[in-house]
Write a structure and sequence with these properties.
The chain contains seven helices and five strands; from the N terminus they run ααβααβαβαβαβ. It is α+β, with helices and mostly antiparallel strands. The longest helix has 20 residues, at 14-33. It is globular, with a radius of gyration of 17 Å.
Length: 159
Amino acid sequence: MQALAIGIAEGVDDDHVRSRVCQVRYLGKLLLDWDIPIVEPIGGHAIFLDAKRFYSHIPQDQFPSQALAAQLYLDSGVRSMERGIVSAGRDPETGGHRYPALELTRLAIPRRVYTQAHMDIVAESISAVYRVREQTRGLRMIYEPEYLRFFQARFEPIE
């Protein structure tokens, strides 16, 4: 209960909110300065990497957002979330994938967890993955659960 009360109090504290937004903007500005494709304007809780532009050579049905999340994790242990074709699911009538206009990888920044130094490490990892982006291949889904596929599906690299 005490943690909940602290969270509510911080959520309406202008200095706390401003600090969090500035942290996210700091990360976003680093990425923009390095010409890494992100969604603009920069939000207050997350950075969204534009996987379609990041991996323009990977077709959407080879899961570029998921590939980007995997590469970030392999490079640095940074956990992110695919918000593209996997999250969009399948069309119930055709059974085919839904193809959303956006193919994003979300970097949510939890409150009261990371320092500016952490943001630097995240940015450096994204930059490293971006520098070798042409070497990255798409993914093939090898297991698809009936529900919550964006949490439970399994993938393997396409060679």
